[in-house]
């Protein structure tokens, strides 16, 4: 796979959904991220982007707006064969730019990948400093009783 091709990023479409599911749920089975259902991708398709190498989807990421000044990066995953080529950083910076264009000041990631997000310009914040709306979907999460994810923020402005 050529790196330049792999860095092509576009809006996700219906024909990408099965590949997106496969990439995310493989990591979810390893406990590295939350699982996704097909319906959850379909219902939120407009908020997802994919990295592709020709017809092959090699990475996925979504942006979920939480409030007027806060959006969260969700379901970021790069296929095993494309890891370490800069694809993840490219997707994150694409979503950061989307936030800037939308006038959203802060981008949130809840993650185990602290070093990766630091390389993307994020820094760690205490979870208690995040507004309550950042947690509204956590009610459906199996990790809720003792969430061990790290909260990280990027300021767009
Ligand atoms: C974490 C993940 C998204 C990184 O994507 P990637 O395309 O492999 O990362 P990139 O090649 O864009 O790396 C960008 C930088 O981060 C570093 N990096 C990437 N993954 C890293 C890791 N696990 N630990 C430390 N540094 C890491 C790279 O070395 C690179 O550094 P550089 O800019 O100095 O060269 C990818 O490994 C993945 O899908 N992991 C499994 C799912 C997951 O954990 N998703 C995150 C949910 S929030």
Features:
157 residues; alpha+beta; 7 strands; 29% helix; globular; binds coenzyme A; Bact_Acetyltransf; GNAT family N-acetyltransferase
What does this entry look like structurally?
The protein is α+β, with helices and mostly antiparallel strands. The chain has one domain (3-155): 3-Layer(aba) Sandwich (Aminopeptidase). The protein is 29% helix and 29% strand. The protein has five helices and seven strands. It has helices at 3-6, 17-29, 38-43, 87-102, 114-119; strands at 8-11, 48-53, 56-67, 70-78, 106-111, 123-124, 150-155. The protein has a seven-stranded mixed β-sheet. β2 (48-53) and β3 (56-67) form a beta hairpin. The termini are far apart. Residues 27, 32-33, 76-78, 83-89, 109, 111, 113, 115-116, 119 line the site of coenzyme A.
Largest sheet: 7 strands, mixed
**Full CATH superfamily name:** Gcn5-related N-acetyltransferase (GNAT)
What share of the residues lie within helices? 25-40%
In terms of DSSP E residues, the strand content is: 25-35%
At the third CATH level, what is the topology name? Aminopeptidase
Assembly category:
single chain
What spatial form do the alpha-carbon principal axes imply?
globular
User: Low-confidence spans: pLDDT under 50, at least 5 residues?
Assistant: none
Corresponding CATH architecture? 3-Layer(aba) Sandwich
Strand order of the largest sheet: 1-2-3-4-5-7-6
What is the radius of gyration computed over CA atoms, rounded to a whole number of angstroms?
15 Å
Give the count of structural domains. 1
Residue-averaged pLDDT, rounded?
92
């Amino acid at each position: 796979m050529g790196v330049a091709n792999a860095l092509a990023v576009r809006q996700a479409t219906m024909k990408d959904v099965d590949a997106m599911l496969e990439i995310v749920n493989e990591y979810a089975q390893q406990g590295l991220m939350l699982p996704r259902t097909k319906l959850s991708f379909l219902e939120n398709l407009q908020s997802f982007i994919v990295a592709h190498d020709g017809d092959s989807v090699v990475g996925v990421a979504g942006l979920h707006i939480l409030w007027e000044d806060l959006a969260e990066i969700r379901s970021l995953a790069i296929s095993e064969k494309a890891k370490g080529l800069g694809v993840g950083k490219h997707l994150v910076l694409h979503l950061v730019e989307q936030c800037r264009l939308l006038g959203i000041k802060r981008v949130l990631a809840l993650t185990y990948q602290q070093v990766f997000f630091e390389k993307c310009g994020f820094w760690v914040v205490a979870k208690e400093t995040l507004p309550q709306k950042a947690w509204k979907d956590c009610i459906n999460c199996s990790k809720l009783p003792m969430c061990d994810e790290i909260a990280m923020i990027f300021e767009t402005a």
